[in-house]
Amino acid sequence: MSDTKSASEDKKVMNETLADWLGDVVTLEAHIEEAMDRQLTLKPASQETADAIRRFHDTVRASKYRAEDFQKQLGEPASQVVLKAAGDLLGKAAGLIDKVRKDSVSKALRDDYVAYNMAAMSYTMLHSTALALEDHSTAAFAEQGLTTYAALVQDINELIPKVVVEDLIKNDEVPVANASVADEARKVIQRAWKSTAN
Fold first, then answer.
1. Which of 41, 144, 158, 161 has the most CB atoms lying inside 10 A of its own CB?
2. How far apart are CA 184 and CA 149, in angstroms?
3. Interacting residues of 86 by C-beta distance below 8 A, sequence separation 6+
4. Whether the Cβ atoms of residue 73 and residue 22 lie closer than 8 Å to each other
5. In the predicted model, is pLDDT for residue 45 greater than 70?
6. CATH code: domain of residue 146
7. Could you tell me the pLDDT band of residue 97, with boundaries at 50, 70 and 90?
8. Which of 25, 35, 41 is nearest to 149 (CA)?
9. 147 in a domain, yes or no?
10. Are 159 and 183 contacting, i.e. CB atoms less than 8 angstroms apart?
11. In this predicted model, which residue has the larger pLDDT, 87 or 109?
């Protein structure tokens, strides 16, 4: 009888642990989506950049819905302490999004980059926790979330040089001497990431 009770208590602790990590992810993604809702009002210099911002927003929203659905399946609501902590963390990371400046598109993408990395790390931690607790469905869910945000980070790496140059050109106070540096900057970014891969 005590073994059954112990197994039941262990299962409860495992579920609560996973629910806390998952609640962190859900709250984080909700805050990212909220910040990105505001970014949809930005006026990028090119349609390519506008389309990318829309795609980033829609990807985050879809990932958040997926996380909410999985949270319901798990059947354990996240604790309010975790919800507040996640909100506080993202609030610090994404707080600059509200500042409207002439170079606001590149600044917004910079903030997205920070937020996406935080989401990727949250999914990584959920994945590691799920593996340690031998919850394979949660591990698979977390791996998909990690893959989503890793792809978004790489997309910003590719896009940011072009957007920085576009923002500089839009700012009449900045004398842009060479507007064709985006490809060169992109190559440097790719080289830096490849050369430092473990």
1. 161
2. 25
3. 23, 24, 27, 28, 31, 122
4. no
5. yes
6. 1.20.1260.10
7. very low
8. 25
9. yes
10. no
11. 109
Look up the domain containing 92 and give its range: 2-156
Q: Is residue 190 part of a domain?
A: no
- Does a structural domain hold residue 81? yes
Please name which of 68, 66, 63 lies closest in space to residue 36, comparing C-alpha atoms: 63
Kindly state whether residue 194 falls inside one of the protein's structural domains: no
Residue 27 contacts residue 79 (beta carbons within 8 Å): no
Query: Which of 62, 75, 60 shows the shortest CA–CA distance to 28?
Result: 60
Which of these, 157, 156, 164, lies nearest to 181 by C-alpha position? 164
Domain count, the chain: 1
**Which residue in 77, 60, 76 sits closest to 111, CA to CA?**
60
In sequence order, what are the residues at sequence separation of 6 or more whose Cβ sits closer than 8 angstroms to the Cβ of residue 150?
120
Q: What is the pLDDT of residues 150-162, one digit of tens each?
A: 999 999 999 999 9
The tokens describing 86, both together, are: 């996640």
